[in-house]
Amino acid sequence: MSLIIFNSCRKRDIEDPAYMHITAIEQAGNPGQGTKRHDIQHVYTLIADNSIGTYQAPATVPVLHEGNVLVEARPMIRWFAREGLHPYSMMKNYSQMLDFVPLTVDTLKPVFEYQDNVEFAWMEDFNDNSASMQLRSGTFDSFYVKNEVEHSLDGSPYMLIDMGNGEQFFEIESQDLFDLPVDGREVILEIDYKTNVAFTIGLYATNPSQVVSLPSVTPYSTEKSWRKGYVYLTDEVFNQGSTTRFRIFFRSVNKEVIDPKIYIDNLKLLYRKG
Fold first, then answer.
1. What is the CATH number of domain 118-272?
2. Which pTM value belongs to this model?
3. N or C: which end of the chain has fewer CB within 10 A?
4. Sheet holding 245-254, edge to edge
């Protein structure tokens, strides 16, 4: 007995893709919103409302679409001390019509801007050569606003905390108390920083009966370079009492680092109005 097998399968036709190039991401600079400096490196991308994935820009990716199609890019960031990428809800999504032709490239140029209902509870860029901060406690009695070319991020003033050698500590806080939403809406602190010593960022929750320290994250040495950080403060303020107001603080204790210095610039404390 013989067995004859007929193979009725054949290779399916494979479409020639078009290509989409995603340029480096920009942030729009609108009056009253501070620096355009950002650290948005990834976009979650949809074509005709269908997800095609998350990409680190710049990137060129194949797409199986033809003709004029609406492409949407959503900003994705990394929170301090949290794993993975997260949508940055303070920014609007970016949309652009692209014309996809097989084997050719069209270009998506994401430019993100803040949502219309973003409230800037506090902005401090030190550009007026002063600081809306105060020393709460410490082994030294001053910090500085400086503008030295070799240390400045963008040619403008910054805050310098020079701790000095030996066993030292400090706590610096915002001069103002801020009304922040305690109902679960996101509360974010954007910060540019350069440091060779670990320091902590957090909140003082203040109400008529007490002041509670709420540490959030601890940045470590940046190896002589400036970095942008997004501090997620939602958990710290959530379910605090309706009469509670908040101050931002920075603190550090140092025994071992020689010549410890912390540079800070472009502080933005923000949330979205309900």
1. 2.60.120.260
2. 0.91
3. N
4. 133-138, 168-174, 245-254, 200-207, 210-217
